[in-house]
Write the structure tokens for this entry.
Amino acid sequence: MDRQWLEERLAAFPLYAYAFIDTSELVFADRVRYICEHECPMYDTTWACPPAVGSVAACREKVLSYPEGLMIATITEVSDIANISETLSTRADHERITREILGIVRERAADTLTLSTEACAHCEKCAYPDAPCRHPDRMFPCVESHGILVTDLAEKHGIDFLAGSNLVTWFSLILYR
Ligand code: SF4
């Protein structure tokens, strides 16, 4: 990937931060999956979430088959970060930006894997588990679903995860080869 070319294209987006990463620096942790399983209401409800995405070991193998990638982060101020519906309403813009940047990456990469935020919300009702995913090309599992410790990655690249009390930070990973 021509990073300079990509950086010039990224300048058009309202990103809080971005970083080029090597997948070898990712930390995979079963405790991240434990949180999915025990604290997330989306667990076992979509193709984008565990257990449908496979074991952490299988996710790790898939992710590591891509040598490098781009991490992007957006940030949005809300009036009250404890207001879940207001906080989640900021997600659509981040997903749109992720999709647009993925389109740019695909101009130069033969194969990509995108991990993004929370569970997939493309369909009013997910086809899981009775039928295959309707939009596998647009469905981005969340980063955490793959057991990736996002806080560790952000810290490694000097990105302040908790940038402010009423600031919502979203992360995506666009891996390519
Ligand atoms: S695209 Fe639709 S079917 Fe596929 S994971 Fe998302 S909500 Fe489910």
Notes: The first helix runs from residue 3 to 10. The pocket of iron/sulfur cluster is lined by residues 46-48, 120, 122-123, 126-128, 133-135, 139 (CB under 6 Å).
